[in-house]
Sequence to fold (938 residues):
Amino acid sequence: MTAYLITGASIVGGEVADLLLDNGEIVAVGTNLSTPEGTTVIDGAGLIALPGLVDLHTHLREPGREDAETVLTGTRAAAKGGFTAVFAMANTDPVADTAGVVEQVWRLGRDAGYADVYPIGAVTVGRKGTQLAELGAMADSAARVRVFSDDGDCVWDAALMRRALEYVKAFDGVIAQHAQEPRLTQGAQMNEGALSGVLGLTGWPSVAEEAIIARDILLNAHVGSKLHICHLSTKGSVEIVRAAKKRGLEVTAEVTPHHLLLTEDLLTSYNPVFKVNPPLRTKADVEAVREGLADGTIDIVATDHAPHPVEDKDCEWSAAAFGMTGLETALSVVQHAMVDTKLMTWAEVADRMSYRPAAIGQITEHGRPLEAGVPANLVLLDPTVERTVVPGDSVSLSRNTPFDGMTLPGKVVATFLRGTPTVLDGDLTR
Amino acid sequence: MSPAQSAEQPDVVQPSERGSREVLDASDISRALTRIAHEILERNRGADPVVLLGIPTRGVPLAQRVSARIQAVEGQSVPTGSLDVTMYRDDIGLKPPRGLEHTDIPGDGIDGKVVVLVDDVLFSGRTIRAALDALGDIGRPRAVQLAVLVDRGHRELPIRADYVGKNLPTSLVERVTVHLTEYDGEDAVLIADKGAK
Amino acid sequence: MKHLLSAADLSRDEAHLILDTAEEMRSLADRPIKKLPALRGRTVVNLFFEDSTRTRISFEAAAKRLSADVINFSAKGSSVSKGESLKDTALTLQAMGADGVVCRHGSSGAPHLLATSGWMTGSVVNAGDGTHEHPTQALLDAFTMRRHLGSLEGRRITIVGDVLHSRVARSNVLLLSTLGADVTVVAPPTLLPVDMTAWPCATSYDLDSVLPKTDAVMMLRVQRERMGEAFFPSAREYTRRYGLDVHRMAQLPDDTIVMHPGPMNRGMEISAEVADSTRSVIVEQVTNGVAIRMAVLYLLLSGSNEEEQTA
Fold:
C-alpha cells in the first residue's frame, strides 16, 4: 500500500502541518515527518484538511431505480464531494426493510470501494406506516443497521412511532423521522405562503413539519430513546428543536445544503429541478436554519441527495419527482452559506459534516479527528477556487442539481478512504 | 404586443421642417373634394346607389367630407362608413401584429350598391386590393369605385382611381404625407425626401 | 408579446389593445361571411390535457374564423400520467410546425414550461392551467364588464367563491386591477389562499356587506367534492352564506351585472332565477369568449415571427 505525505495543509482550518498516511491510518501529524520509501508526496499548501465527510441521508436508488443512481455511481459522487461514508436511505425497490436487502446494499458499497455505505433500514414494512419492520434482524445483520427511517414518508401514526422509538432502544438504534403530517400536505407542491397562492401550487405548510417534530420530541421524551429529524426546513422547526434541547430533551436534527441556500422564489420559473420535499422555503427560514446550524441546534448537514432520471424532471411541475442531487456540491454550499459568511469555522464544518453524523449513525470508522492512529479518511479542500456548477460534469447518474449555473466556492482536491485516494487532483482516481 | 403604426399612416411631418414642401393647401384640398363629390354624382346619376367607405385612418374623414358635400348638393344623405383592411393585407405575416381599425358598414349594407372607396393616397395599389377582398366578405356591390385625394403613381397592381384629387408625380424616394385637421390640426399635402426628418 | 401565460403579463395598454381588437372582432362576427383571412396559412393546435369542451370550442371557433388551420389534440386519458409526454407532445407539435399552441393542462405552470422549455418555438396561449390562471377567461370577463359598465377604472368588482382553487379568480384579480378596478374577493376563509398579501385586491368573508357596493359580481363554481375535504360543511350552508339568490340580488345596485364563468351549479353558488335574470350576462360571456380569443390569436400570431421591427 502506498504511503502518502500531505505537506503543509491547514488541519481542519487551523494549524498548518503535514499528514502521513500509511496502512490505512493516519500515522503522524506534524512537521519533518520521516517517511517510508516510496511515499507519494502531495503538496497541501493552501488546502484545508478535513475528516472524511459523512452523509447521514443519501438516496443511492439501488436496488430498483438503477436508471437514477447505483451504489457505485452514488458513492463515486460521494467521493467527488469529499464524503467517505454515506448512509443509504431505505426507500429502494424492494424497500430496505429486511436483513436481506440491507446486506445487499452494504455489500454493493464494499465492492464499489469509493465510500463506505451504511444502509438505513425502513421503520415499517414496505414503508407503509402500518406494521413495524424487523428492525432487530436488520440491526443484527452484517450491515449492523442502527438508523431506521421511512424517509420519503412520515411515520405519522403516533402509536407506531412511539413503538418504533421504544423498540430500537434494545440495540441503541435511532429513528430518523421524515417530519410531514400527511393530511396537511395532501397534493402539496411547494411551501405554503404568499407565493403558492400566486403560482396556484398546492401549499406544504410549515406547520405540517413542525407539528410532527413537536409530537415526536415529546414521544421520545416519554420513552427515552433516540430521535433524529431529517431535513429540517423551517424557522419554526428550529425554534422547536432549540427549545427542546434547552429543556434537555434528546433530539438531533439535520439540514440539507439546499435549504441552507435556496428559497421558494426560484419556483416562479416552474422549473421542476427546484421541486423537493420538504420544499424550498422563504428567506426567513433560510436564515433560521443557518443560525440553527451555527449554534448547534441543528446537529448536522445531510445532503438528501435524491437523484432522478431526466424524464422525471423534464416535465410539468406536478408530474415531476421531488428531490435534488447534492453530494458533489454539499461542501461548496456549506462553505458559501456558512463559512464565507463567518457563521461557522472549518472546525465546526468538520463537526457538522463528519464527527456528529458519524456519532448519530454510530459508526467509529469515520468522523474521527485528524490525528495519529485513526483511519485515514479525510478530504483536502481548496477553498479559494470558484467553480460554476454544470450538471453534465456530475459523476452521478443523474443531473438534477438545483445549483445549475451557480458559481460556488471550494473544490475537493483529494479524498482518502482508509489511506487510499478515491479522488486526486480533483478527479476520481479510477 | 405593441402594434406598429398602421402602415399607410404617414409620419407626422411639420411643413416648416427641412426637406418637405406643401403641394396642396387647405383650400386646394377643399376644392378637390368638392370636385370629387360632383364627379361621383355625375357618374352615378345621383346619390341613390352610392355608399361611401373610407379606408382608415385618413380615408375615413375624407369620406365624411365628401359625404357632407354630396348632401349639400343633393339634399340627401349618403350612407358613409369605414372599411378596415388590416387583416386583408398581403404583408400581414411579414410585419409585427397591428391593432385593428374600426369597420363600420352602414345599416343597409352594400349589396347591389355602388361602393366608393375613399383613401388619402394611392400608391402601390395594395391597400385597395386588400379593400376589394374585404368588401367581398361583406357583400356583393353592383360596382366598386375608388376616390383618392392624391395619386402618386408607382402602381404595383392593375388598379386605378375613378376620382383623383390631384395627380402627383413623385419619385420613389419621396414621401407623400397627408395632414387632415381631424388628426393633424391642419389640412395639407406634403412631399418630403425619405431621408428628411 | 409572444405568449399569453398569465394575466400579469399584460400591461394596461396591452390589455386595452386586446379588448379593443376584440370589439372589432365581435362586430365582424355579425357579417354574412364570418371568416377573416388574418391567420391564413397558420396552424393553431388546441392542446387539451383536460376536458373542457366549452373552452376548446371557443378557441376553435376563434381560430377558424381567422382562417387558421386548427388541430385538436386531446391528450387526456392517453399516456399522459407519465409527465414526459408533455415534452414529447411539444416536440411533435414543433415537428408539425404549430405556430400557436392553446394549452389547457391540469398542472399549474404547464403552459409556462411549454413556452420556456425550448421544446417548441410557437406562441403559447394558456387556456387554463391547474389552479393557476386562465387569462382569456379574465379578458372576456373584462370585455363583458366594459360593454356594460364602460371604463373599469374605479369600478367595484366582487368575485365570490372558491378563490383558492380558481384559476379564473387569479387571472381576473390581476387583470381587473391592471385595468384600474377595485376588486374584492369573497369566500369562506378555507377557500382563500392562506396568505394573500401578493394579491392586488381586498378580501371579505361577508357577502352581504359587499354586495351593496358592487358594480359587477362574479360567482365562481364551487365543486361539491370540496365538502369532503372539509372546506365547508354542506352545500346548504355554503349556499346560505355565499350563494347568490334573488334576495341577495335585491341588495345589488340597479345596474350591477351578474357573471359566472361556467359551468354553473344552479342552486349552489347561484340560483336559477338569478342565472336567468335580466342582470345576468352569463350567456353573453360565452359569446364574447370567441371575440376575445380571436383578438388574442390575431395579436399573437398574425405578425412576423421575427422580433418587432419599427414600421
